[in-house]
Amino acid sequence: MFDFEYYAPTRVIFGRGAEARTGQLLKELSVSRVLIHYGGGSVVRSGLLDRVTASLDEAGVVHTQLGGVVPNPRLSKVREGAELARRFGAELILAVGGGSVIDSSKAIGYALADPDHDVWDLYCGKRKAIGCFPVACVLTIAAAGSEMSNSSVITNEETGEKRGYRDNKCRVKVAVMNPELTVTLPDYQTAAGCTDIMMHTIERYFTQGGNMELTDRIAEGLLRTVMKSALILRDDPANYEARAEVMWAGSLSHNDLTGLGANGMDFVSHGLEHELGGMFDVTHGAGLSAVWPSWARYVYKDCLPRFVQFAVNVMDVAPKATDEETALAGIAALENFFRSIHMPVTLKELGVEPTEEQILSMAASCARGAGGKKGTAKVLYEADMAAIYRMAL
Ligand code: NZQ
Ligand code: ZN
Predict the structure, then answer these.
(1) pLDDT by residue (tens digit) across 304-314?
(2) Distance CA 130, CA 309 (A)
(3) C-alpha angle with apex 125: 123 to 126, nearest 5 degrees?
(4) Of all atoms in ligand 1, which is nearest to the CA of residue 43?
(5) Which positions ≥6 away from 51 have C-beta within 8 Å?
(6) pLDDT value of position 211
(7) Is residue 6 part of a domain?
(8) Who surrounds ion ligand 2 at CB < 5 A?
C-alpha cells in the first residue's frame, strides 16, 4: 500500500426532488449572484431549468444564464461564459447538466480567478491555476464524475485538441443529485455514462502494485453494481433504484476512492479517447469502450496478476489452465458486456475510420499531452499508442 492523501470536499445532496433545495444551498454558501450554465436544451425541455430558477428566486439569489455547452465542451464557450460572468458580477457558476457543463463551468471559474492569463494555458500544461471561482451543480447524467472530481476537460476547437486539467481548486462546492433527472436520457447516453463510470475505476485498477485489499473490494463492488444496473436500465430505463446506484457510482468512481493506495493511475484509454474526441467529436464513454479491449490485449501480459484478479472477481470467469487464458477470458467478458449494452468495441463500430496519418497524429498528440509516456499497467509511448489505435480499427 502506498501512502495517499484523500480530499473529497464536495457537499452532496442526493435524492428525489433535491433540485428544489438549490437556492437555499447557494444561500448557505453566502452567494447572491449566480451564472447558470447549461447545455443544448435538455434542461429547458424537461422543465428542470425553470424549477432551479424558481428555487433561486425563492431564496433571493439573482441569476443570469448561458446555455449552449456541447458535449466535448468548447473553449470559445468558456471565454463567453467568463466574459458574461464578469460583467454580471457572478459569485458562483451553477452548472445544470452533465460533465460537459460542469467542466465548462470549472474552466470559467479558472478564467475568472485569473483574468490576466489565457485559461487554455492550464489545459496545455503551461502553468497552474492560482484559483477558481466557486462552482456548484445540479447533475443530469451519471457519467463523467466531474461533480466530485478535480478534473475538467475542454476542447480547443481552433486546434482540435481535447485536454484535461486536474487541480483541487475546482472541486464542486455543492452537488445536487436527483437520479430521477436522468430518466430522460437517451439510451445511448445512459450506456455511455455507465461505460465511463466503469472506466474511471478500471483506469485505477490496472496498476503494478501498492493495491489495497479494501480499495480493490470497493472497486470490484462498484464495477459489478454498475454492470448489473446498466443491464437493468437497458431493459427498464425508468428504474429509479438502478438510476440511483449508477449516479452514486459515477461520483465515487472519479473522486479517487477506487484508487487509494495504488501506485498511480493508468488512464491510457482516456488519453486515447481524448484524441478521438478532439478529432472526431465522439461520445466520451463510447470512445472508451471502442479502445479499451485493444488496450487491454496490448498490455495484459505486463500486468497479468491484476488481469487475472479482474477476470475472476469482476467478470466471474472460472480460472483457466493458464493465467494468460484467464486474463484473456476476462477481457473478452468485458468486451461482451459492452456489446450487450450497445457500446462499440472497435473504432469502426464507433463510426470513425482514421487514416494512418490521423492515427500517427493522434498518437503523437496523446504522447505529447502526457509528456512523452503514459500508463501504470504498462508504460506506453507514441508507437504503442499508434499500435493500439490500429488494433482497434
Ligand atoms: O446538452 P444537453 O441538451 O443537456 O444534452 C446532453 C448531451 O447531449 C445530454 N443530457 C444530459 N443530461 C440529460 C441529457 N439528455 C436528456 N436528459 C438528461 N437528463 O447528454 C449528452 C451528453 O452530456 P455530457 O455532459 O457531454 O455528458 P457527460 O457527463 O458524459 O460528459 C462528457 C464530458 O466530460 C468529460 C468528457 O471527456 C466529455 O467532454 N470528462 C470529464 C471528466 C471530469 N471532469 O472529471 C472525466 C471524464 O473522464 C471525462 O473525460
Ligand atoms: Zn471518463
Answers:
(1) 999 999 999 99
(2) 42
(3) 110
(4) 4
(5) 19, 20
(6) 82
(7) no
(8) 196
